[in-house]
Design a protein that fits this description.
Helix content is 74%, strand content 3%. It is mainly α and 247 residues long. A two-stranded antiparallel sheet has the order 1-2. The termini are far apart.
Length: 247
């Protein structure tokens, strides 16, 4: 005969243990969800999404109930800008995920930051689905190509920002070179003025003509009587030597 009293005790122990674990797990999940909801969001407010939703739910003016409050072209442009903002956020999350994962494994960041990141990923996924649905509602099949167009707009905006930065850098470099050039010219003119006013400057730098042979050199002033006489003597001596040679 089975002893039910002896079997009741272990079953009761297992039931209490399982119930305790289930209660603890439920409380832990609720506590974690409450804590996650109070965490600071990874991204700031999505202004482009708010603009699109405001335009979408804008009521028409009184007396114009038959015509839409906002034309479809304006709604498409607003939705496209919303998709561009989503592309920017997708790239930011993609670039930060690997680095954040490595920091979490090393213990350099806390679990709260990782929870914020995971919540941002889920929000982006929901945002992408919403954009695709809105695009298909405005134009059939547009949801398949809207992010391609948004990606091109995003890259064009980046190139435009780089071009503006290069132009600004070129302008600053040009101004620096003009200042440097003026400084060099002023220093050069100052050195020239100091050289002209220096009385200890050698006579060779004051301007003159060098006349003489290979053995000795005589420095004389150009245009003076001594120079003309020396030249005539040298010419006469040379002519006599040539006549003597012919004889």
């Amino acid at each position: 005969m089975v002893d039910w009293v002896s079997l009741t005790i272990p079953f009761a122990y297992l039931g209490i243990l399982i119930g305790s674990l289930a209660t603890f797990s439920s409380l832990y999940r609720k506590r974690k969800a409450a804590k996650s909801s109070t965490l600071e969001p990874w991204f700031g407010p999505n202004v482009q999404r708010d603009i699109y939703l405001s335009l979408l739910h804008l009521e028409p003016e009184p007396g114009k109930e038959k015509s839409p409050a906002v034309p479809d072209g304006v709604l498409k442009a607003a939705l496209l800008h919303r998709a561009v903002e989503d592309i920017r956020r997708i790239l930011e999350v993609k670039n930060a995920k690997q680095a954040l994962s490595n920091l979490l494994q090393r213990g350099s960041v806390g679990d709260d930051l990782w929870q914020r990141f995971l919540r941002a990923e889920k929000e982006i996924e929901a945002e992408l689905r919403d954009v695709v649905e809105e695009a298909n509602a405005l134009q059939s099949g547009w949801g398949q190509t809207i992010f391609q167009s948004a990606n091109e707009m995003h890259h064009n905006a980046i190139l435009r920002e780089k071009l503006i930065a290069v132009q600004a850098q070129g302008k600053s470099d040009k101004e620096w070179w003009q200042q440097e050039k003026a400084s060099i010219q002023s220093k050069f003119m100052k050195e020239l003025e100091e050289g002209e006013k220096d009385p200890t400057k050698p006579a060779s730098t004051l301007g003159g003509d060098k006349v003489g042979s290979d053995e000795d050199t005589v420095l004389v002033e150009s245009g003076g009587p001594i120079a003309s006489g020396a030249l005539s003597i040298s010419k006469g001596g040379t002519s006599k030597k040539r006549k003597g040679g012919k004889k």
